[in-house]
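Illustration: Response regulator.
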Amino acid sequence: MDHLTMSSDNTIEEKYMSRLFHVLKAGIDRARVPISAIFLTISDQNQVWDQAEEEITAFLQTKIRQSDLVFKLEAPFEWCIILTQSGEEEAQAFLQRLFADVRVTLFAQGKLSFSASVAEIGNSDVGLESLIKSGRKSLESALQTGPWQIESINAYKKRKIMKIKVSILEENDIFRNVLQTSLENLQIDSFQLDIKTFQDGYSFLQSDWYVSSHSHIIVMNDILPRKNGLEVLDTIRKLPNNKKFIVFMMTKRNSEEDMIYAYESGVDQYLIKPFNLQLFEAQFRRIFERFWS
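Result:
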């Protein structure tokens, strides 16, 4: 391995952070899950002793998960902890547990107090240099307030806009337009709905609309001219990338056998007509919370 190799205490120095940070943040937009950067320093460096920095670094290593990283910053007694798949709330809880452990842990010659800042990172455009600069500036504010203070950095939370394709397959013109208008009026943060409607299953399958890598929500009736909803469902579930499709099946059939068959065939949501439009919108929003929160 090259000079990116970790030191014997499994800690990475600041000068080697850039490449690893680039790898860590690359998955944020794809998984829609943030990471958090915690900046940590000792509140009163007059309390430190020989080898204190090494001992504290080793202590921090025992508190993180295997998927997290501790970076030693260039300034004395400053660290950056990257928590993967964690937002600010999880980072704040981590720090509270860490601070509680510090208070009951005796480091060689005495107890120490810490100050910290937290940055939730919600998109992959964040630069490491800018992040570290913001972290250190926020640390200064925490130090001025007093020990055990945690400052929040809000500059990097915003997520990239994610495009989601939505197809509505419904023969009835009025009801199809009602569904389209309902979805167009939904306000879902960080998402753009690209909606297209079809009168029947055949026209949908003949189009190239569903042939893309975009996540795709299909709202369709089970009874359609030419190719019905179950035929469309069978076709898309045989595709190699079929997991990108989330299917709402609208039907007047309400027997348990019909519902079981639909779910076993690959339906994600089963809507029995007539259904409440607000309930449909709530179910639609829930899909975003489940898959792209």
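Reading the tokens back as a structure: Residues 162-292 form a domain with the Rossmann fold fold (CATH 3.40.50.2300).
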